Structure formats: structure tokens, C-alpha cells
Amino acid sequence: xxxxxxxxxxxxxxxxxxxxxxxxxxxxxxxxxxxxxxxxxxxxxxxxxxxxxxxxxxxxxxxxxxxxxxxxxxxxxxxxxxxxxxxxxxxxxxxxxxxxxxxxxxxxxxxxxxxxxxxxxxxxxxxxxxxxxxxxxxxxxxxxxxxxxxxxxxxxxxxxxxxxxxxxxxxxxxxxxxxxxxxxxxxxxxxxxxxxxxxxxxxxxxxxxxxxxxxxxx
Length: 218
What we know:
- The protein is an all-beta fold.
- The protein has no helices and 14 strands.
- The chain has strands at 3-11, 14-22, 31-39, 48-53, 57-60, 71-82, 94-104, 111-121, 129-141, 150-157, 162-169, 172-179, 193-202, 210-215.
- Strands 3-13-6-7-8-9 form a six-stranded antiparallel β-sheet, with no helix packed on it. The chain has a four-stranded antiparallel β-sheet with strand order 1-2-14-5, with no helix packed on it. Strands 4-10-11-12 form a four-stranded antiparallel β-sheet, with no helix packed on it.
- A hairpin with a 2-residue loop joins strand 11 and strand 12.
- The chain starts with a strand and ends with a strand.
- The relative contact order is 0.32.
């Protein structure tokens, strides 16, 4: 079992995503990963994504016997280029980046993190990756589990060999960049850009653990 509840709809002209994922109960190691969202129909021309996002409910349950960590996250993510020459069906050397609102089991109550990430796929399915870089854009305080609206921005700047990440709320902007030294002239092998909710839920024999996220504005 990976998921039980999923909803994707247009609510008052805005995208609303709700998704709940579960771990399995056959072991106390590792996590069960699942995702639900919307793919852009023509991803390669897209180099910039910006949207107002509000999270109104979230949960990430811990399993004491498991050394992994349950994570509930909302992503803007995609593959931007291949550092060699892309091979259809093989994501090896694809460069991917994302801006994420995330909660880990054990994080402070009613708190979310915002991070920018970049990595290179080193396997055909991108199940393994290298050159991973993560930059913190701060935390969000969510009184009563209702979070203030965030404007999330991610941009690929090939002329400057970097990805730019920005999060803006009532306190103002927080911005950082991740530079790279890869060749970036080839299209990615697995081209995609998506807005989604992704959960990595600890497997647990004592009780089925879950992660959930309701994002009514994107």
C-alpha cells in the first residue's frame, strides 16, 4: 500500500492537491516513496517556474524502530539537461533541480522547511544520484497547521551555469543559487517538469505510518 487518498482539482481558479501516502508493515527499514501531482505538457522550453503556494495541513509520522525518516514534501521539480548526450529511456547524466516545502518526522511542531536542490542522475531510472547540493531557504511557521502563503521561484540560468531559488513571504525574499560545472547543451533523456506532493514514509512493523499534505493554492 503506497497511497489511500488523492485529490487534484481546480478550486476558485487555483490548483489544489491533497495526497496521503503510507509505508508498509513488512519491515522496520527503509521508506515507501509515492507521489501525486500535475506534469507540464511541454517541459523542455520551461526554464522558470513561479507560483503562490499555501499549505493548510501536513503530517509526517515517525517509526521508532526505523532509522530512516518520514518526509512529506511539495515540489516544483524537473529534468533540465543531460551533461553528456542523452539516450532515450536512460536518465543517466540528466541534471534535475527542485524547490521544495518539506516536513520531516521530528521537526518542530507546526514548522516546515523550504529548500532548493540540484543533483545528477547516475542510473537509468535515477534511483541513484550524485553531485547532490541542497540550499536552505529558511523555515515556515504554521500556527494551527495553516501556513502563510509562499511565493516559490526556481530558474535555470544556463548562461550563468547555475540554478536560482527564491522563496518570498510577508517577511520578504530569501534567495540562493546552486552553480554547476557540467556541460548543459543536451536535452534531458527523461524530460519532465511537475508540481506534485511526494512522500517518503518509514516502513514499520508495529503500525502503518503515513504522511499527508493538503496544498490548496498553487
